[in-house]
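so my prof wants the structure for this chain in the tokens format not the other one, which i didnt know existed until like an hour ago. anyway here's the sequence
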Amino acid sequence: MNFGIVGTGSISAIHAKAIAAMEDSTLHSVYNHRLESAEKLGSEYGVKGFSDLDKFLADPQLEIVTIATPSGAHFDSAMAALKAGKHVICEKPLEITTARIDELIAMAEATGKVLAAILNRRFHPAMDAFKTACEQGRFGKLTSASCYIKWFRDQAYYDSADWRGTWALDGGGALMNQGIHSIDALLYLAGPVKSVQAATACLAHERIEVEDTALVLLEFENGAYGVVEGSTCNWSTTGHPARIQLCGTEGSSFLADETFEIWDFKNPFPHDAEIHEKLMRGSEAGLGANDPKAIKYLQHQRNFEEVISAIREGREPTTSSQEARKSVALIEAIYQSAANGGARVYL
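here's what i got, hopefully its the right format
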């Protein structure tokens, strides 16, 4: 299928690499409001760059649009692409409010096009194993489900663009921007959240409107309790991995990025030995923890391939707009709680 990318920069470059790696898809065109930027990325892949969004979307050969603009700018590009009859795959968060997401979902339904998200941290072997263990009930009664994103962004990161650290275009800070993939993974594994109590603060950065630190208490629908801790002011030489930790009455598993720190169950399964051999953590640096350009493209590739399969099979992709909505709804509730002094907010 023919892909077009909206937006340039490091994330757009990852999109381009992922598309180029697929066997049955092609990067067809690139759009950016700055023609020079569009042509720069396009020239690397021998495709045309556009600075006119209408002309970019008017191309009848263009089938799927991926969006890699600032979070708060996703809505306009996604809505225009859907109205133009294109399928859309959008970076996280799908949009920065559930109200905007609902408008996009309604347009996708009206046009009969697929609206999907990039939830790339769902697409690696350790996550596959983690999800299977949950579905098999290997944890027994789930009692604890938490995630920790102790990352670092220096002041230069926020100063590098006017939109960074703003409510209007970032939609939030350490949670909405950096932490959302881990929050999505936590919901994907542990299920929906019943209520939250939260505190947020900006402790180490200047000239930003949003939080660089957040601490959240979660109560899950299944009765489990948990914590979300997100930060962009936790220094590390190599970067701390993002951690997802689930415990229950019959098992515990701690995931650090794409490998396990703990894989321990009361009732062993034959494939546990292979997981201990191939998927346990060594001394890997945190993926994107200190440098957002360090993100791999292979998970994006799998994400794109899943959406293509869904389109061809006439089904919802596993990274559907409804799936992507869940993490944004949770973060909205967290921000509401924090704004009200940590009051409990029910979802």
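also thought this was worth mentioning. The mean pLDDT is 96.
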